[in-house]
């Protein structure tokens, strides 16, 4: 029951001066600290800003040539900038060049040798890798325009009256990123294991007198496109593994990045909701409601900024995920030879589905957190129901807040359900066609 | 016409004191009774609470190891709690163990003998049974956090000014539950009848000299997975029947439970709508509108609580229903041998469709009932149109109230229509493929 | 420009007394006339009420046993009632009996002779005919509860300040009904022409020495199910034609009835919108806005009443239309023999599509007309923007107004587009399967 | 931060008189200029009106008989009218006649020679061309009712306080139109190149002793329907090319026209949003908010006018685009002979997709621009939050603003995504059927 939350006015008046004094003193201290933070990178480092939490990932992305930023490890977000003449940009260009070469080589082979599933998927993988890379470079160009206001909001929301969350942003992002990384590495290792196992079986079958399986042979087959051009030595083996690994990493990094951004944003909306929840329980002057509303507008503007910079990446992420899932679903009825093949196939399918699901769930959390204050506001007592509160109430419900794929679809639970429904329906159709096809084959073979 | 609903103010003033006195006396009596109820389980038993109405079903669920609660028959909802070291939990664990064993055995057979429709459906049935069971145990853990606030709202809404409904909640739930139970039993009996009939025919065809159909043989075939491991005796026959019956019961119980919860919630929203309907016809002070609005918020919070605890069960229910319906639809063109087979097939298909329809219809009633006060509020006369009423009006339309499947879809008539449309479309496609397949078969057989 | 619509207050005040006097006199006259109308059927007859306009259709429906009402031609809507012991009910029962007999006979033949398209569609036609009939009888039972409030609203809205529409309701309904009737008759005639043509060709091919095509033979074939039971004479020929005609009529009548109801409702919403449009151009006292709002609530309540009574009929109408369209689409690639066959096939397909389209378009007009005052209200000048207007504005946008199919879908242009999209997609799939099938046939025939 | 946007009232008061004087003088000047513009076509020509920008396209459309308007080059929009007895109407009629003749001839050939993809698509192209033409003539009839109010709004929005956009409307429309035109010409040229290349190959294969490819032969084959009726001479060659070119042009013009209209409308909504954005930063009297709101209503009414006149054209555009895309997708697996064929096929498919995408994107810009002021309004300071602003805020979110296809669907990014999803899904199904078909063919060929 919320009937008696507003204290008796007289009781409240008694301690008015003392209370107001204390509050003013506190506010002044907070404002001072905020100003110090904004100017001083040392103090900023103490705070659980998004900049501090995302930094390791930016660093990692730079190694793979995805986000060519200077001073990426700097404590001040102002210094993290895109510079055309920098080591990172150089790295990115070399990377795009090598990727482009490999893609062209694969494409040439595809057109020469005719379309088949395996070469097709490689071309798509490498092409989408380059597209993603270019989009991330474009994101890097606008990164400082994004992270500076974000840090501004972080500085506001990391001091009272905003409560700190149970787990720090840094910890959340670390756990999310590491678990995603481990799962990716396992998937990549399983791919090689499955592929090597296939190669070994083939050798044993074809040349039964060979006792030792040559590693070089496997390399020659797996990276045929490379070793047809360059001599076989350890540098190029490393190069081949590196290039393959990097492009697998890019796709995974893209999804991880969307998840990290979503976690960062939803944490802030969650904090906003908590503050509103606390506010409705006590008497809140109009000025504070105004402040809350202004902070909410700031958050919405940050959301818009993220949306403008990220919506193309979100679209590419969803499209590539759906393509790879469909591709896996197409071969779901193919008989495989060995348990390791099954393990790889099912693990990678489930991992893909899980990753897509995680992207949608984390992104939809933003929208859900943004709607949380709505219920709380309805319990604001009548004498506090001022125009400010009314405007805040109206503002909360008026526009959609959340990530979208270039405005074509919103990342919500409902759109995820729609996507999954379509995929399942498609799979059922395939199943049916396959069953009929098998029956036809039987009929034909009987003839 | 609603023009003259507000009496002339003078006429109203005349009996003011008398009226107010009587009302105050009445209110005091009600509040006292409410307090007595909240403290005293005897008085609570007199009321038509949801706790009293759902009790028999909780009891039944406990027998099948689904809701391990202590004091399930207690009159006070405070005493119904989940305890780790209790008879119920023990029961649940044994149950999960036996179910798990059977599932693993069926899964092993499935992998050994190759995929076929009959064994596949058994594995899905038993797996989903275990998943449902685990979810219900998790619901049981949060049951006391759910039923205590619910009873609190029940105590509020079972006294004037809320009207009692025509039929008591207990009676509604009893009729709903019993009819669902009977239909389930009939379906289960038809399954055995159809299966036994098939067995008899097979025996008659293969061994024409046998005059008496051996019951043991049927048992051996029907419960092959059990009697391959244990000797054939009456205890294990009972065990086999019990396990099969229980897992069939679980699926049905899940749907019935969602329906019961929906009936309970929609009754309260209906009462709320009735009170608003009565309120708009007479002069209502602002304080009463405030009370109505606060009660509505309480109801919405209860709805949220139910949603948090039940949405996973709703999702599983819908998915399993759709799977079983699709499975039936796949074999709709298969020629069956005897009328009993047809009777079982069509009865079970219609029963499945009817059950799914009932779940959606009952759940959508909550949403529909929650919107009922909206129209009534528009007839509130202008002099009574205070800020409280305005806020109530706004509050009613601002958020979706109703059950959902983990937020992926809402249980409304429209989503039900969408689901049915997809199923019908799928069936039409199957029909078309089947017709073509038959034509091809004819063509092939002519060759 | 709408800047100068409010006259200068002084200018307005000058003629105040004269104006108010005249208006009061006029209002009193209108109210008197309204009261006279409500009591006197003679005066009511002069008005363009919906009752007067729908009367001929009710009469027609009674002849075919669909709406067993007494005093259907009466001028007073109070007298049009459902009576269990009346000629109409008797008619309906006989009708249902005959229809039921024919349906059972057709169903028996279907099960005996195996499923084929032609007998299947007859069974569906007759079954749906009976279902429609039962639903219309249930509508007839509630007809007086529907038409009396409707006439009440008609009486209000047929006097100033409501403007009369350009075309009277009676004329609109007459034109709509007659054109629908003619198209139906043409379709029915084409059916017999096509069927008789087929019969003649068959005779000519099989028995080339016969010079005269026997009419009796055609009757025997067309109405095989009847003339196997009863002797061939003119009474039973009439009976056969009558029964066939009636059931074709029922489906068409259902759609026509929905269209007529929609036209009637949308006319009233249109009048409401016109009044609001006129109101925003001049100074309107708050009391008048209150009156407008109350009339709007009355209209919405009438809409709810229609929705409760008609939504099952709307659902059946849509389902049967979709079934018959799909059925036609399935045979779209079948080679037909003669131009008359093509004429019948394409005419009946286009007629079906057109009828379905008309139902959706007319029904969606209600919703569109109900939203019309929204734009007008935004031009209400600030000094007239009272709470009443605000509430009216809010009320207009808060709930969906329009017909629905049991709440499963709304009859809007968008849902019509969704339906058509699904049908076209389905047809494309069929086309593709058919093309492939033809190719396979060619391949097989080459073998 | 927006905390300090409202100046201190005293500071503001000091310059009040001077400021108000200057503003009044400026306003008077603007109003005078506006009045002069409305009356004087010379002054109007100086302004960047939509009429001036669309004029060249109307002129072009008139040449191809699509928009029979008189005085199409006139500077005053009042003079651009549809006249029954004019050169343009005559032109249109001749054009429709010739088109109708060709269509009937193609249709006759289609029915005689049996349905095949190539002749089918020609018939659809010419039929849709005629339908589009008729719809454009109907648009021309209502053009003056559309362009006069549009110019009225243009005159309002081309003076301060509205800011001019970076690029003038004329320039935008010129660039859009020219680029669309060039792409269309390239597509048309590629069509002839591909078709001629096919013809040459065929000649070379069939008659290897011919050294020179006869142009006449190609003409005879390409325009068989024309040269079967008329003798082969340069006039009829021109006529054949002209007719073909025109009907290709019509489809493209329709899409271009929708894009141009959308650009024009979204520019105005963008200006409105800019004005609101500027208004929230300073103190704005209520009268100015009223003016803004009235201008917004004017814009919405213009939008409605455009919607009424254009929605049928939008529907036809979308339907024909989808048909041609589907048609291309159907033949995506067909093996083509020469690079030029591939170039034409892929260029025309991508061009079609791009054009459809452009139509949806440009049209959705209107809706997006209309929602822009919503966020800005939430930052209006509390002391300026008057009823006018509140009504404006409510007005912005209450109704959908944008183009639709006869109300059946809205041109938004989401509906575009839905359309593309369906197409991709359909293509995947085709792919699957094709793969299976190939397998069957292999199986059959092995037999």
Automatic annotation (TrEMBL), chains A, B, C, D:
Q: Which GO terms describe its cellular component?
A: plasma membrane
Taxonomically, the superkingdom here is: Eukaryota
Stated membrane topology is: Multi-pass membrane protein
User: Which residue ranges traverse the bilayer?
Assistant: 82-101, 121-140, 174-192, 236-265, 302-324, 344-363
Concerning InterPro entries, the annotation shows: Gustatory_rcpt (IPR009318)
Q: Which UniProt keywords apply?
A: Cell membrane, Membrane, Receptor, Transducer, Transmembrane, Transmembrane helix
> Does this entry carry the keyword Transmembrane helix?
yes
Some GO term, biological process aspect, for this entry: which one? signal transduction
| Compartments it resides in | Cell membrane
Function per UniProt:
Plays a role in the sugar gustatory response.
Say which family it is in.
Belongs to the insect chemoreceptor superfamily. Gustatory receptor (GR) family. Gr5a subfamily.
> Which PANTHER family does UniProt cross-reference here?
GUSTATORY RECEPTOR, GUSTATORY RECEPTOR FOR SUGAR TASTE 61A-RELATED
Output this protein's name: Gustatory receptor
Upper lineage: Eukaryota, Metazoa, Ecdysozoa, Arthropoda, Hexapoda
